Amino acid sequence: MAVWSSGAAARLDVARRMELDPEDVLEPWTLGLAAAYEKLPESALADALAYFAQMERLFEAFFSRYDVLLTPTLAAPPPQIGEQAPTVEYATLYDRVLDWVAYTPIHNAAGTAAMSVPLGWSSNSLPIGMQFATQRGGERTLFELAYELEAAAPWADRWPEMVTG
Q: What is the dihedral of CA 16, 21, 24, 25, to 10 degrees?
């Protein structure tokens, strides 16, 4: 969160330097992230980046033994439209977003290649992704795997009922 919120804090600084009222030009989500960043200790960003480097090493060791890691993409089915809109109050959205994306941010932090493939479907016909991850630079492995998965369980013609009517 330190890295993510540091970007929001930078946006807040830009708005202020441009003599804009941040409340007029930034969404509650961005304002909330910036406020959270301002409460962190000065070492938070450096500590987070050091943690990312540690995750890189751990994943490098893991992928020296395994080709692919399989996890859910998200912790729950797709939310209703607007449930995670950036205009939702920050505290509410914070809980919704962090619980929901439990499996994906680590790959951003570690720099590993990852993909989400719609291999399941919710009770209301929305895609449920399975996340496959591999070593840094291992996109070819993922593309080849995606090709095989789509051949075995095609999804190109699967659309939620709300789209097809």
A: -10
Q: For residues 34 and 23, what is the distance between their CA atoms, to the nearest angstrom?
A: 12
Smallest CA-to-CA distance from 87 within 133, 30, 19, 126 is with: 30
Q: Over its length of 165 residues, how does the chain's per-residue pLDDT go in tens digits? A: 899 999 999 999 999 999 999 999 999 999 999 999 999 999 999 999 999 999 999 999 999 999 999 999 998 888 888 998 988 899 999 988 887 888 898 898 899 999 999 998 888 778 889 999 999 999 999 999 999 999 998 888 887 776 666
Are 28 and 89 spatial neighbours (Cβ–Cβ below 8 Å)? yes
| DSSP3 helix / strand / coil % (the chain, rounded to 5) | 50, 15, 35
Under DSSP, the state recorded for 80 is P
* Cβ proximity of 60 and 136 under 8 Å: yes
| Tokens read off for 34 | 């910036």
Phi and psi torsions of 72, nearest 5°: -65, 155
Residues with Cβ within 8 Å of residue 126, at least 6 apart in sequence: 77, 78, 160
